[in-house]
C-alpha cells in the first residue's frame, strides 16, 4: 500500500516530539488520515523500533548476552538472551531456539541453587 508522504512526515514530527506510538496513531486518525494507512505505518514503525531498540527492563532484572557460534564480536550489538529476576531467581529465555541459551540457562540455574543453599547456612 502506498502511504501518503504527508502522513509519514506528520508521524515523524510527532515521534520526534516523543509522543508514544499509540498516541501518534490516535492523533493521526483524529486529523483525518486514512485508517488503513495509519495502521500500516504505525505497525511498521513499531516493528522497526522494537528491532532497533532492545526492550527496557526494570532494575530488578539482569540481562545476559550470549555470543553464539559464528557471531562476530566486532560491530556486534548486545542483545538479551536470558533475563533473570534478581528477587525470585526466575529465568526467562529470550532466544529459546538457540541451544547455547539452554546451556547457559542450566548453568545459571545451578549457580542460583548453590547460592541459595549457601545462604541457608548463614541465616
Find the structural class using helix and strand composition.
Answer: mainly alpha
Morphology call? elongated
Largest sheet: 3 strands, antiparallel
Could you estimate the helical fraction of the residues in percent?
40-55%
Q: Brief overview, please?
A:
A 3-stranded antiparallel β-sheet has the order 1-2-3, covered by helices on one side. Helices cover 52% and strands 9% of the residues. The protein has 123 residues and is mostly helical.
Architecture overview:
The structure is a single chain. The protein is elongated. It has helices spanning 5-16, 21-30, 35-52, 99-122, and strands at residues 61-64, 82-85, 91-93. The model has no long low-confidence stretch (mean pLDDT 82). By secondary structure, it is mainly α. The N and C termini lie far apart (64 Å). Strands 1-2-3 form a three-stranded antiparallel sheet, with helices on one face.
What is the topological layout?
Elements: H1 5-16, H2 21-30, H3 35-52, E1 61-64, E2 82-85, E3 91-93, H4 99-122
Antiparallel strand pairs: 1-2, 2-3
Helix pairs in contact: 1-2, 2-3
Amino acid at each position: 500500500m502506498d502511504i501518503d508522504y504527508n502522513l509519514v512526515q506528520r508521524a515523524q514530527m510527532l515521534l520526534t516530539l516523543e509522543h508514544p506510538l499509540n498516541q501518534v496513531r490516535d492523533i493521526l486518525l483524529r486529523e483525518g488520515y486514512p485508517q488503513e494507512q495509519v495502521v500500516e505505518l504505525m505497525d511498521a514503525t513499531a516493528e522497526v523500533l522494537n528491532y532497533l531498540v532492545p526492550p527496557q527492563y526494570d532494575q530488578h532484572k539482569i540481562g545476559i548476552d550470549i555470543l553464539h557460534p559464528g557471531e562476530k564480536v566486532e560491530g556486534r550489538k548486545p542483545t538479551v538472551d536470558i533475563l533473570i529476576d534478581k528477587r525470585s531467581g526466575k529465568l526467562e529465555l529470550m532466544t529459546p531456539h538457540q541451544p547455547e541459551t539452554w546451556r547457559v540457562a542450566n548453568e545459571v540455574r545451578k549457580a542460583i541453587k548453590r547460592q541459595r543453599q549457601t545462604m541457608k547456612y548463614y541465616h
